[in-house]
Specification:
The protein is of the alpha+beta class and 169 residues long. It is 16% helix and 21% strand. It has 2 domains: 110 residues, Roll (Mac-2 Binding Protein), CATH 3.10.250; 42 residues, no CATH class. The protein is globular.
């Protein structure tokens, strides 16, 4: 009779709770699925700077909050300026994460942004696409206008979404 002795070594790597995003919420939106993105870090809520933030990051925020996707990422404090600290941790989400804390991130730090750069999101079941690389939105007789820039696109998309909902579309 022979016996096999198996030894397992379990190593526990402590994670600094101050190095990860602990929670996320949306503030000052027109519904529960929209608003300024705020994160809980090291026990303190703060807003997120728009620098380096993209739609993939917003997708993860929406998924964490129970929505399948982000329809629009809003910049320039679209939902109003927040207060307190402004955070950025240079997230590198690949889009498959369920929580922001699963995204690769550099050291969490306070940035030199101001609250006019707070980022927001509109979460929903599908994405609204208004601008594409090879198509430019033009209005009236204007050409090469910045109507696909962040401000115009955000307002246009937000308005279009609610008008379609109002009309039953």
């Amino acid at each position: 009779m022979s016996y096999v002795l198996t030894l397992s070594i379990i190593s526990v790597i402590p994670v600094d709770p101050g190095s990860v995003i602990q929670d996320v919420r949306l503030a000052d939106g027109v519904s529960n699925s929209s608003g300024r993105i705020e994160v809980l870090h090291n026990g303190e809520w703060g807003t997120v700077c728009e620098d380096g933030w993209n739609l993939t990051d917003s997708d993860v925020v929406c998924r964490q909050l129970g929505y399948p996707t982000a329809e629009v990422t809003y910049r320039h404090a679209f939902f109003g300026e927040g207060s307190g600290f402004i955070w950025s941790n240079e997230l590198q989400c690949n889009g498959n994460e369920s929580y922001l804390s699963e995204c690769k991130q550099d050291e969490f730090r306070e940035l030199v942004c101001n609250h006019r750069q707070d980022v927001g999101v509109f979460c929903g079941s599908k994405r609204i696409s208004v601008c594409w690389e090879d198509i430019t939105l033009t209005l009236a007789n204007f050409r090469n206008n910045p109507y696909c820039s962040a401000n115009y696109l955000n307002i246009f998309t937000f308005f279009t979404h609610y008008m379609l909902r109002y009309l039953g579309g």
